[in-house]
Design a protein that fits this description.
With 465 residues, this protein is mainly beta. The protein contains three helices and 33 strands. Strands 2, 28, 29, 30, 31 and 32 form a six-stranded antiparallel β-sheet that branches. It has a five-stranded antiparallel β-sheet with strand order 1-5-4-3-33, with no helix packed on it. It has a four-stranded antiparallel β-sheet with strand order 6-7-8-9, with no helix packed on it. Strand 6 and strand 7 form a beta hairpin. Bound molecules: fe (ii) ion (FE2). Fe (ii) ion (FE2) binds next to strand 20.
Length: 465
């Protein structure tokens, strides 16, 4: 998508950009601090590390800065052992970050800018390239620690010091790219992933065995004739579940001044049930909705498939009016025989970042945690919500002035916990918060004060020792 006649974009107005100030302001320091201060007590049975990724531009950006599409990756790690905590953070150093560090300023524009740097500025290898963006998620599989991008290969990190080892294709499984949200089967250890592309075949899926070798190379998903944005997936013991909401890439429109992505609700939403044994894809369809993130899923005894997810009426910013964008937690039952989707609302207020105990991911039997809003600050997530959809129960923890991040289920040796990084709106101090999974509404067991501010970000993982 190189366009050599396009001039270098102007700097972003940092001071007036909502995703480059306050809770979202980039963090440029990289530190490694032991023995963090704790309010409360870190459970002594916790041993491991919580890692979280998120957009964090290395230099003040030029062109357009669109959250969460733009930014460089920064990985934050809180290591827990023997009741004590250590914090480390590092940029994911792509060739673009390294080139900008040599120059001392931003060189690449945003992903929605058509500008790319020329050979005089960055040399022949990087001329005409777009910025790599491994800033969405962090995944460990088959001995590799991966900073995940969207629809592109991830970057491998050194687990010892979080330094960047380079672009990683995991054999050829991620050679064409990968979702930032591959799903690991807790029973088989396999990692199942998909990748969307702007050109045919538009959508592929692939599988890594538990040892990290490729057991299924990228395989086209039959029945897809349009490039569509798909952020996350669900997994059952039988199926990889891909939900194709009608957010369509329109390359021609972008090159003539229009938007790259077009929301086409009249097309409806289609759901692909991809048999993991390689059988033909089963399709179902329903009215249009949008989903960023899934919780758990499971195969029902009658052959239908149940999927829990955070639903939105449409993707923010893509409405045809200024109408509100209602969200909620939804349980869908997909019938591969009839091609139908039955959706039941579990909770009818905005939620996001749904997570489950990853050991139940393909069986959807455990609790679902999300970020939620209690309404004091309509712009931010101020609470964690905990659902038991099977029992129809809901509880929440009011985080007060803390802007909460994605909750992470953390199994301990004698009890289980939820953990997340949040930042206080009043003083911008960041904390790693540990809640008891047995009664998360009772509040934190421990608040670990982080030595620097962690910008609001995206997804994390708990890596047991
Ligand atoms: Fe995501």
């Amino acid at each position: 998508m190189s366009a050599p006649d396009i001039p270098r974009p102007a700097p972003v107005d940092m001071a007036h950009h909502s995703h480059l100030t306050g809770l979202f302001a980039p963090q440029r320091d990289e530190v490694d601090v032991h023995d963090l201060d704790v309010i409360g007590e870190i459970p002594p049975d916790l041993h491991g590390a919580y890692l979280r990724n998120g957009p964090n531009p290395r230099f003040d950006p030029i062109g357009r800065y669109v959250y969460p599409l733009d930014g460089d990756g920064m990985v934050h790690r809180v290591e827990i052992a023997d009741g004590r905590a250590r914090y480390t953070n590092r940029f994911v150093r792509t060739p673009m970050v390294e080139a900008e560090e040599r120059a001392g300023h931003a060189i690449w524009g945003g992903v929605t800018d058509l500008y790319t740097p020329g050979v005089d500025e960055v040399g022949p290898d990087l001329a005409g390239t777009s910025r790599d963006l491994p800033d969405i998620n962090i995944v460990r599989h088959g001995g590799r620690l991966l900073a995940m991008a969207e629809s592109a290969p991830p970057y491998r990190l050194d687990p010892a010091d979080l330094s960047t080892l380079g672009r990683e294709t995991c054999g050829d499984a991620m050679a064409v790219g990968s979702t930032a949200h591959p799903k690991r089967d807790p029973a088989t250890g396999e990692l199942v992933l998909f990748n969307y592309m702007l050109e045919a075949p538009y959508l592929t899926w692939a599988v890594l065995a538990a040892d990290g070798t490729t057991s299924r190379p990228p395989t086209p998903v039959d029945g897809v004739d349009t490039p569509m944005m798909i952020h996350d997936m669900a997994l059952t013991e039988r199926y990889a579940v891909l939900v194709l909401c009608p957010l369509v890439f329109d390359i021609a429109a972008m090159f003539t001044g229009g938007a790259l992505l077009d929301w086409r609700p009249d097309d409806g939403t289609r759901i692909a049930l991809i048999p993991r044994d390689g059988g033909p894809v089963r399709w179902a369809s329903c009215d249009a909705f949008w989903v960023w993130h899934f919780a758990g899923a499971r195969d029902l005894p009658d052959g239908r498939v149940q999927v829990d997810y955070a639903q939105w009426a449409y993707p923010h910013g893509f409405a045809r009016s200024d109408a509100p964008c209602p969200g909620g937690l939804v349980r869908a039952v997909v019938d591969p025989e009839r091609g139908t989707v039955d959706r039941q609302t579990v909770f009818d207020r905005d939620v996001e970042f749904p997570r489950v105990d990853d050991r139940t991911l393909t069986r959807a039997g455990g609790p679902v945690a999300t970020v939620g809003k209690l309404g004091r600050d309509s712009a931010g997530w101020d609470s964690l919500r905990f659902f038991d959809p099977d029992a129809g129960k809901e509880a929440h923890w009011d985080a007060g002035s803390l802007a909460v991040g994605e909750p992470q289920y953390i199994p301990g040796a004698t009890a289980d916990y939820w953990g997340m990084i949040g930042t206080d709106r009043t003083d911008l101090r960041s904390w790693f918060v540990i809640l008891p999974a047995a009664d998360p509404a009772s509040g934190p067991l421990a608040r670990v004060e982080l030595p620097i501010r962690v910008p609001s970000g995206l997804h994390g993982a708990w890596l047991p020792v």
